[in-house]
Write a structure and sequence with these properties.
With about 150 residues, the chain is of the alpha/beta class. The chain has a single domain, classed as D-tyrosyl-tRNA(Tyr) deacylase (D-tyrosyl-trna(Tyr) Deacylase, Chain: A). The strands form 2 sheets. Strands 1, 2, 3, 6, 7 and 8 form a 6-stranded mixed sheet that branches. A hairpin with a 2-residue loop joins strand 1 and strand 2. The two termini are about 15 Å apart. About 40% of the residues are buried.
Amino acid sequence: MRVVIQRVSEVTVTVEGQLKGACGKGLMILAGIEESDTQEDIDWLSRKIVNMRIFNNDEGKMNLSVKEVNGGILVISQFTLFASTQKGNRPSFIRAARSEKAIPLYNKFVTAMERELGKPVATGEFGAHMIASLTNDGPVTIIIDSKIKE
């Protein structure tokens, strides 16, 4: 799995003008799933994200997790995170998991995030055209790939 994490002061996602998910202070996570992803990737990523110390403490240092600041999380499916731009000008998405595999893994990822965070996680709508609107706090943007584990 590959995720883009953005620390936000607020975020919303709409589908066809209808609000699907939102949170205030917390994280927006764009989640891309590839064919080789497993429950192990989900478990590792969900623990890593919820415990990552990227919120400021009283001294202004990034030393607190989303859990410690009682923040929210919004997860949006994002197959384009596996775009290959090696050939030509049109990206290839061959590494992105097909929906038959991606939807169950996406749902398991959301459930794992809720378990780690200890409260419900907001989502968009898998496969839909979504409009995400956010205020990036910092800005802080982090990319994690469960196969690389940097």
